[in-house]
């Protein structure tokens, strides 16, 4: 019996970059609907560029991006940037950040309605942030900020979620919350693509892995792609195998060689 697999996101010959240099090129990907996809690669390999090129935040130099066979409708895509890419001094509360996820649904003349407020409150609760709803976003810890951004993605009710290193610099509890939420969203039919440099957890959590190093080195189920050849082609000499306690950790190098579950702040 054959099962029809519907491609949700289709990339063809995609190249993107800054100035004359291309950070990624020749990217062909067919991402089915309702999958959890981990994008893995070392620092500077183009993970962020790939996610941002999908929604046009980085100029596309060549190729195409199609969402369900058509142009990318940004209302259907929730994007959570890498923490370093956010201006945390912006004076806005956690609740207001989450409400921004409702803006595409709120008309230009109408403020948020009771339904929007309830949705925002529910999402904050779901990520364990209801108590801190009125707190300024810049005053929250890294893990709390990531939870707030996740809540914003939730209220958007998007069918495609792009999360850039959501687990980096967060505490263990937040990492578990994020993993759980990504799974729930996937189970509800959304496609979730997240960038990470933590190979071990990506292979554990993801339905599909996308190994990136300026191009797509491999894309497929963890069992099929998590091979010495793929790892070498992706990480080369940067690959480090570290043994911590009784856990063997495999990590992509760069500045994030040491693995830490401690909160940054
Ligand atoms: P990753 O997310 O995997 O660490 P990036 O997509 O951020 O990789 O970066 C890919 C390449 O593009 C790197 O060589 C990086 O230096 C370069 N790059 C990233 N952002 C910019 C930018 N805003 N301007 C110029 N070059 C950039
Ligand atoms: Mg990045």
Question: Can you walk through the features of this model?
Answer:
40% of the residues are buried. Residues 242-249 and 252-265 have low confidence and may be disordered. The strands form three sheets. Strands 5-6-7-3-8-9 form a six-stranded mixed beta sheet, with helices on both faces. It has a three-stranded antiparallel beta sheet with strand order 2-1-4, covered by helices on one side. Strands 10-11 form a two-stranded antiparallel sheet. With 265 residues, it is an alpha/beta fold. Strand 10 (240-244) and strand 11 form a beta hairpin. The protein has one domain (7-260): Rossmann fold (3-Layer(aba) Sandwich). Helix content is 29%, strand content 27%. Adenosine-5'-diphosphate binds next to helix 1.
SSE topology:
Elements: E1 7-18, E2 21-32, E3 36-40, H1 47-54, E4 60-67, E5 77-80, H2 94-99, H3 114-126, H4 142-155, E6 160-164, H5 172-187, E7 191-196, H6 199-205, E8 208-212, E9 216-220, H7 222-225, H8 228-235, E10 240-244, E11 247-251
Helix pairs in contact: 3-4, 4-5
This protein binds adenosine-5'-diphosphate and magnesium ion.
């Amino acid at each position: 019996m054959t099962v029809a697999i519907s491609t949700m996101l289709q990339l063809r010959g995609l190249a993107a970059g800054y100035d004359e240099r291309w950070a990624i090129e020749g990217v062909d990907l067919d991402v089915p609907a309702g999958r959890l996809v981990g994008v893995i690669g070392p620092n500077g390999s183009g993970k962020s560029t790939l996610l941002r090129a999908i929604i046009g935040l980085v100029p596309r130099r060549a190729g195409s991006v199609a969402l369900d066979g058509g142009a990318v409708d940004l209302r259907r895509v929730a994007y959570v940037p890498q923490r370093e890419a956010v201006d945390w001094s912006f004076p806005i509360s956690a609740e207001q950040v989450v409400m921004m996820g409702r803006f595409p649904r709120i008309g230009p003349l109408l403020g948020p309605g009771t339904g929007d407020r309830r949705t925002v409150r529910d999402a904050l609760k779901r990520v364990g942030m209801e108590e801190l709803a009125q707190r300024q976003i810049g005053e929250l810890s890294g893990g709390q900020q990531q939870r707030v951004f996740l809540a914003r993605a939730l209220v958007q009710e998007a069918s495609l979620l792009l999360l850039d290193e959501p687990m980096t610099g967060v505490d263990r509890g937040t990492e578990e919350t994020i993993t759980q939420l990504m799974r729930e969203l996937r189970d509800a039919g959304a496609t979730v693509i997240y960038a990470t440099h933590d190979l071990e957890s990506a292979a554990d959590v993801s339905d599909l892995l996308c190994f990136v190093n300026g191009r797509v080195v491999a894309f497929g189920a963890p069992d099929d792609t998590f091979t010495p050849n793929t790892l070498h082609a992706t990480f080369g000499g940067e690959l480090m195998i570290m043994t911590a306690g009784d856990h063997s950790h495999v990590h992509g190098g760069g500045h994030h060689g040491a693995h830490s579950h401690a909160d940054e702040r």
